[in-house]
Amino acid sequence: MLTLRTLLTTSAATLALCGPAIAQEAPSKSIFTGGEKGAYHSLFCPPLPAALSNAYFQGYRCTLSRGTLENIDRVLKEPTNIGFVQLDVFGVTSSRNLR
Fold first, then answer.
1. What does the DSSP assignment read for 11-77?
2. pLDDT by 10-residue block (mean), the chain, 99 residues
3. What residues contact 65, with CB distance under 8 A and at least 6 apart?
4. Is pTM beyond 0.70 here?
5. Helices 87-98 and 68-77 meet at what angle, rounded to 10?
6. 92: Cβ contacts below 8 Å, ≥ 6 apart
């Protein structure tokens, strides 16, 4: 019984001390939009973080990128991210990757 109590106390202390550090290291979730003056960044993205947060998907923020190809790469590397893409470019890229 003493061993179990010691184990639980040690575990609780470790979580209390390391929890904030682990939370800070978690990568932020991005919505990749393309250029700063583009419609995706200036019009479409701004309402999304609040809407996602209302649906319990918290921590997203609009992030500038170089466009569709970079957005695809970033989402493939980190699937929790979101990327705006032009459908025609996405289609061409997808068909090339299938061959």
1. HHHHHHHHHHHHHHHSPPEEEE---TTSHIIIIISTTHHHHHHHTT--SEEEE--S-HHHHHHHHHH
2. 52 51 60 95 96 96 96 94 95 80
3. 32, 33, 34, 71, 74, 83
4. no
5. 60
6. none
